[in-house]
Amino acid sequence: MDYLANITHQDLQLSKLPIVVNVDASSPVTYPVRTNLRYYLELFVPEFYQGSFISLTTLEGSEEPPQTLAGVTAYPGANFEIQDLLHGLVESCVPEFGLNEITLCETMVRPYYAKAIRKNGSVLIDEIILPSGFVYRGGFLESDYAAYKNKFFTSYVGSGRRFLTWKPNHATLRPDQPEYLGFITNFSPTPSELRLRVEITYEDWSTETITAKTLSEVSSMAVYVCPVGPTQLNLQARMNSAGEFVIRYKVWLSNENNERLSEERTYLVDRQPFRKVRYILFQNSLGLFDTLDCYGDGFETLRVQRQTAEQFRGYEYLPRVSERVINRVTGERELTVAVGYGRYQIKDLRDYWQDLFFAEQMYLVTDREHIPLTLLSDSYLADDDREKTVGRTLTFRYTNKETSYSRLPALIATPERPTGWRGDAQACELDQSTGLRNGKKRYGLLVKYYIDSGEDVKPRTQKPNIVGTEGYIPSWDSVDCTAGTTPFKNVLISQTSVYKRNNCAVGQVGGNWTVSVAANTYGSEVSQTDADGKAQAAANALDTQENANMFGTCIVPAPIPIGLTSACPTASTQPIFAVIVGSEEIITNTSFNSPTVRYAATGLNQGSYNLDIRVQYAASPFESFRIRIPSKGFSSAVLAGNQTYRIANISINWGDADLVIICEPA
């Protein structure tokens, strides 16, 4: 097996689940009257695959009513749900009949960004471009939404490097059964190749590992469909040197260095003969296509409807002339199949078959095409404690109606007027994982034309320029598309990790580490906010327990020093300060303008504390001031007057930086 590649995953939004964008409320101080406030969200999407962004629509809304609890008022702002708009822009890709190469499904993922607009009546307050995101066509159970809404592609798919299916692992496949696995490249660094690796086990238990398929020019944030059935991998008749057939095999995806990018999937080859086997191809909840093998008894019925009319039989009323004639006959076919009664994982499969009932598309695999079906069965026994032998009966209707009967053989293709594809819509190519230009230029679209005359095919036929498809035009080097020419690049991100090291020696405690993303690592064609947002998302993804155990510090527990400094000028109308913890004054009154930090005699142990700052003036008018604690990100409101100001619930951890309280003029 290949060693794991070192990759960092990025999250996406799922189009079948809520996608909510919040626009911050306008300042209640500046706009105490809220009735005229209006909020807008303008949504931008690419015109085509990896194309430039265009405005899709602008939504209008009002802010949520302010919420007051225990004297504290919160202003939620305006919320916009955009999942329905985005869901219509992403599509699943039905595998082409006979597919045997790794292919890109360019319509499964689409980037987007939004612009928040705030107005007071008709007067513009501001416009803010929000960080961009990616939407993926798929969903999962609504009860899991709260936990996984922003973590599904990192904490589940990414952490397990999973293929995009709910089908149980170690599935059995018939030798001629088509099978597909979907994989998303939502990670960096982006590989230059995808290699479908296969470990084959023969009847004598000997093994060998091969690279079955290879795809070059891999795009980030894209979905790839991998054919993994025995026939698609040429394993159905493969034998080793001893003449033994394949009985099982494992598949996984690796990069150009044979470093593993995905999980392993194991398949058992079932050569047991059956009277009839049918294969149903259906779209799973994650938008890709799984295959259901139906080898139980099945039958097909034809129902017809006849449209009749009455006619005059003529003056003679001859007996051979019909008074009622049939104008049209329309037929509908129904297919009933049995599934189950398997030997392996049958209860896991029983649970998994529920996914079929949520499928939006399904097809019967024939000897020459995928025939669309509709599932008529509308109820499913998902669990039965008494059930020992698991089997289900499903009824489908052929989607397309019939008006005649025939059984024609497959037709050999005849020569047609030769056509080709030429490029259209040149643009700089982007690394989708970073947003930076990658030094190449590409055609975004291909237009079909007649080779003999050079004229466009009518009607005008165009498609995205995608690697592995007919007519694909590779990218080319261009000096105006280097990473340095990206319009917006991120600034340095440096932050203290949330996770702390937890594998220190006895007597030591783990500390944080500094998570950094270098400047110019991420870019954007849209805005500086978008570039910095990508870098921030990358920093958040690096903040894991695993990295904390590698880079975090181990220290001997020691009290954290606490100190006080004042930048207020020397004057009787300026305040002086003291610090009280519990009932003990640990730092006495400062003098005016004392920039040197005065420390308490003893520090604070790990825990949560209320810090009381006693403020005193010698004379009025009282000058205003503010209190800050930089290491805790705390800043008070503007204050003035003799008082004791409480900073509540300050958390102290072993290894924290010195807790320095800064008092300064407002």
TrEMBL record:
Domain DUF5977: 488-555
Name the UniProt record assigns to this protein: DUF5977 domain-containing protein
Species of the source: Runella slithyformis (strain ATCC 29530 / DSM 19594 / LMG 11500 / NCIMB 11436 / LSU 4)
UniProt cross-references to InterPro entries, sorted A to Z: DUF5977
Highest taxon listed in the record's lineage: Bacteria
A Pfam family recorded for this sequence: DUF5977
